[in-house]
């Protein structure tokens, strides 16, 4: 174990209010492509850029096309949690971790056993009827054809935050509260370029900010410790 990993391990051992803030890189090791890597969705070719398809206005204007893309690219329902997800769930059970704040929409943290998870961008596992409010699971969407409709006839929308949509205020406030109370903030698998999510780091008041990411981030100069390794490898040694 290198010195940085040893330092992180000792900081985790000393922490009693740990918060983890993660992005797409946390899930890539489970087989879910991220949006900005060389192999991610943004480097594949579609009739429209993914950020256009995953926008509120596109969903309204081209709902059926949205769902063709969504079913094919966003519903990875057979993936499993990796060592990072599992370790975070373990820390919560041990009373060490306050919360997980995630930009991911795959539900893998909960699948690993985490309970206190602030999903900034929602979850593909929840889908609601715009007419009656009834919720439907991801398998319902996966198995549907065309535009999925509720039994009441209403159109179903994924409970995810699309481009042009605001983040849920209650979720944001919970994430801000957790980060502001943390004595150790570990940030992993995120480029920290997507706002307002990336701006949450500014609410951290502690003295131990750890960044785990393979590429540089705009917050590197504020970090107390940086690890340039795959996050699953780091967490498997903690």
Task: Explain how this protein is built.
The chain has 238 residues and is an alpha/beta fold. It has 2 domains: 1-31 and 81-121 and 166-238, TPP-binding domain (Rossmann fold), CATH 3.40.50; 33-75 and 124-160, SIR2/SIRT2 'Small Domain' (2-Layer Sandwich), CATH 3.30.1600. It is built from 10 helices and 9 strands. The strands form 2 sheets. It has a 6-stranded parallel β-sheet with strand order 3-2-1-7-8-9, sandwiched between helices. Strands 5-4-6 form a 3-stranded antiparallel β-sheet. 37% of the residues are buried.
Number of helices: 10
- Give the CATH level 1 class of the largest domain: Alpha Beta
Number of strands: 9
Q: How confident overall, as mean pLDDT?
A: 92
Low-confidence runs of at least 5 consecutive residues: none
Our estimate of the beta-strand percent is: 15-25%
List the quaternary state of the chains. single chain
For the record, what is the CATH homologous superfamily label of the largest domain?
A: TPP-binding domain
Alpha carbon gyration radius: 18 Å
From the N-terminal CA to the C-terminal CA, the straight-line distance is 10 Å
Largest sheet: 6 strands, parallel
Helix content: 25-40%
Structural class of the secondary elements?
alpha/beta
Order of helices and strands: HEHHHHHEHEEEHEHEEEH
**CATH architectural designation of the largest domain:** 3-Layer(aba) Sandwich
Query: What fold name goes in the CATH topology slot of the largest domain?
Result: Rossmann fold
The total tally of domains equals 2
Approximate shape: elongated
Strand order of the largest sheet: 3-2-1-7-8-9
């Amino acid at each position: 174990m290198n010195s940085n990993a040893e330092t992180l391990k000792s900081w985790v051992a000393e922490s009693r209010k740990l918060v983890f803030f993660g992005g797409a890189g946390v899930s890539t090791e489970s087989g879910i492509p991220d949006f900005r890597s060389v192999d991610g969705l943004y480097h594949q070719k579609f009739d429209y850029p993914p950020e256009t398809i995953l926008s509120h206005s596109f969903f309204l204007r081209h709902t059926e096309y949205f769902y063709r893309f969504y079913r094919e690219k966003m519903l990875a329902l057979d993936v499993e949690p990796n060592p990072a997800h599992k370790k975070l769930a373990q820390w919560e059970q041990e009373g060490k971790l306050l919360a997980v704040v995630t930009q991911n929409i795959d539900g893998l943290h909960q699948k690993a056993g985490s309970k206190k998870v602030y999903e900034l961008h929602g979850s593909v596992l929840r889908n609601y009827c715009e007419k009656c409010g009834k919720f439907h699971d991801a398998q319902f969407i996966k198995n549907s054809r065309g535009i999925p409709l509720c039994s009441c006839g209403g159109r179903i929308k994924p409970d995810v935050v699309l481009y042009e949509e605001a983040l849920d205020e209650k979720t944001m406030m919970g994430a801000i509260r957790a980060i502001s109370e943390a004595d150790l903030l570990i940030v992993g698998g995120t480029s920290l370029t997507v706002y307002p999510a990336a701006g949450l780091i500014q609410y951290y008041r502690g003295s131990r900010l750890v960044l785990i990411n393979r590429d540089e981030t705009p917050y590197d100069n504020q970090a107390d410790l940086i690890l340039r390794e795959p996050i699953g490898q780091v967490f498997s040694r903690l």
